Amino acid sequence: MRQLRAMPLVDSSSTVLSPAPASAPASTGLHLRVGKLCVALQGHTPAELFDRARALLAEARFFEFRLDALPKPAAALPGLKEFLASRRDVTAIATCRRKENGGNFAGSLTAELEILLKTAECGCHIVDLEVESAEEVRPAQLARFRSALRVAGSALLISFHDFTRTKNLEHAADRIEAFQPDFMKVVSTARQLSDGLAVLRLIEARSLSTHVVGIAMGEEGLISRVLGPRAGAAFTFASPDADLATAPGQVSVRAMLDLYRLEHLDQATRIFGVAGNPIAHSLSPLMHNTAFRREVVNAVMLPLKVRILEDLLTLARELPLAGVAVTMPLKQEVLPHLANMDPLTARIGACNTLRTGADGRLYGFNTDVAGVVRPLEKRIKLRGARIVVLGAGGAARAAVFGLVDRGAEVYVVNRTYENAVALARKAKAKSLKQEQLAKTRFDVLINTTPCGMSGVKQALPIKENELNAGLVFDMVYNPLETPLIRLARSRGIPVIGGLEMFVQQGARQFEIWTGKPAPEAEMLRVVEMALRRHG
Ligand code: NAP
Fold first, then answer.
1. Which of 36, 118, 305, 331 is catalytic?
2. Is the predicted pLDDT of residue 18 greater than 90, yes or no?
3. Domain check: are 285 and 142 in the same one?
């Protein structure tokens, strides 16, 4: 299938709306400078709305005022006029979407047009009219509205919204194009990653002839929000902060600028993803984007919510993705789709890292092994070490295979004993019943169960009297200080926290993807800070 068109490098942070792209309709002739990122604002009162705008001026100069979110949109007009008069550096969009078109404005179409025109007279640079309204209004009334907008110096944006799915985008765009507005905005709802891809394609195609904005709402549509301008969109939207989103999946302005570095994304930017479900709280984007920035690698990592693997594979092929960090529940399922993998990954039967080769095919690696082995190797000699692994799931597999590979004597203990036996047999390790733990001494005890993780009821994976080891390694890293780590410390036993593993496996991913040494200290610092802030 066709890959997304290579766009010219965009090195400025704004688009000048004049002249319009090659075959675009005769436009307003406006000389309008729009940034890449518009912050969508709403408030319960006009005062709250403009206070929010003022509070954001340090990071944004481009706002959408969702007047329909106010009980009386017209009440915002004096404040709007005053705000825009005092801030000539701000670009503003006014929206007053009617209820029947997915907004909150209960008034008539004529009332909507009146309010929008007044926003233009108050200094708004762009007014947003739903395509349904444009189609409903009599042509003569629309023509009068448009010429009044022109007199006021405002541009017309015509928008389409589908709040349930992503379908017939071309048809939606054609409906808008029939009116030859200054901007076209097509917003759909993503149910899968491919929906975001469909929106990016639309942007690419339509941006040749018009100023286009395209968004696929929802978590699965994130790629359209972040990569839209890179594909040719005039701009994209953000929320003031995570709690004040005006649309599903909207990303905060800070995350857009700092985490995804929207202003720096260009056609040379390599796109990476962390794929899984759930994925919204993954710390991988923070860790890797920080590393990319620190090492001056032109790349970005995005969280990719994947319900079915085929969706991820399509995106990887067609965007294309340069690499993927694979998390639950895809680590095993992805194996048959790899062109090749390293022998240990094949033996473990789980892959957490994909790299797209120059041939466009996917190559698989397992850096979880390094995540376990490296922190241990820094502290003890693994050959001959007696190590007990608690748990027999995915994380345990990487630990057991990796440690056996390094010559350790590995014992598996698990809630469901048969799973311990099965893993031990496959990895040439030994299984052990939990009752034997108290009387057996180990060099290392590794917890790979979720016990102690925030939100998990069971605090300790073993009874207190069963802790009989020279070193404790807890893979759980949220919270940073788990009950097992606390217990070990209280006994004077040295510990390794799960964060060290997380950073080590991420550092190896970084090296596989970039060929550069990973800035481990910086990766650790930002992830630890985020965990302390939110943990
Ligand atoms: P998994 O595949 O679901 O396996 C979980 C294992 O823990 C199973 O063997 C399960 O036993 C056992 N278990 C679950 N609940 C238990 C309980 N209440 N008491 C005793 N045993 C229990 O999960 P996973 O992918 O291996 O992940 C396990 C943990 O490791 C998670 O907390 C994850 O966050 C952490 N992890 C950390 C890193 C890192 O970088 N630090 C990397 C990977 C994973 P049964 O066989 O009886 O079901």
1. 331
2. no
3. no
Span 24-48, pLDDT tens digits: 444 444 556 678 999 999 999 999 9
Q: Residue 36 catalytic?
A: no
The number of the ligand 1 atom at minimal distance from the alpha carbon of 458 is 18
| 403 CA to centre of ligand 1 in angstroms | 17
Q: What is the CATH number of the domain that holds 112?
A: 3.20.20.70
Q: Using alpha carbons, select from 379, 366, 395 the residue that is nearest to residue 475.
A: 395
CB 140 within 8 A of CB 113: no
Q: Are residues 255 and 291 in the same domain?
A: no
Count structural domains, the chain: 3
Distance of alpha carbon 267 from alpha carbon 5, whole angstroms:
9
Residue 314, amino acid: T
233 lines ligand 1 (CB under 6 A): no
Residue 316 CA to residue 194 CA, distance in Å, equals 10
Residues 474, 516, single domain; the answer is no
CATH number at residue 526: 3.40.50.10860
Residue closest via CA to ligand 1's atom 22 equals 449
Look at residue 20 in the predicted model and tell me its pLDDT.
42
How many CA atoms does the CB half-sphere of 74 hold within 13 Å?
9
- 363 and 381 together in one domain: no
Most informative mutation of 475, 477, 482, 523 for ligand 1 (most atoms within 8 A of CB): 475
Is 218 a domain residue? Answer: no
| Residue 497 Cβ contacting ligand 1 at under 6 Å | no
What atom in ligand 1 is closest to the CA of residue 395? 26
**For position 25, what pLDDT does the model report?**
40
For ligand 1, is residue 350 a contact (CB within 6 Å)?
Answer: no
Q: Are 260 and 283 within one domain?
A: no
Domain of residue 361: give its range.
278-368+504-530
Q: Name the pTM for this structure.
A: 0.92
Residue 238 lies in a domain: yes
β-strand partners of 95? 66, 128
